Amino acid sequence: MPxxxxxxxxxxxxxxxxxxAKGYFGRRKNVWTVAKNxxxxxxxxxxxxxxxxxxxxxSLWILRINAAARLNGMTxxxxxxxxxxxxxxxxxxxxxxxxxxxxxAFKAIVDSVK
Length: 114
Hints:
Blueprint: H1 7-20, H2 32-71, H3 76-85, H4 92-101, H5 103-113
Helix pairs in contact: 1-2, 2-4, 4-5
């Protein structure tokens, strides 16, 4: 019995990986075995990067809220504790945006919390 090889699917699979490796440097862009490993690793980094992005933005928002709160005579932890106690339902993203782009509104929130 002749050997059955599905070369159409194999070629399509390789083309898909080589397309993802476009723009890589050296043999990573045009040698199948090297490109396959580089693309797999790149996809792993992309997955973890999507998780880290959320952490990084949250820490950035906290930094901005802390800086703005300290300008108004409070620490971040004091401000957030009193904000939750006073039922201010603004999340960190909105508070950080107010602190950066509209300091007067943020000052009004801090004064209402005090």
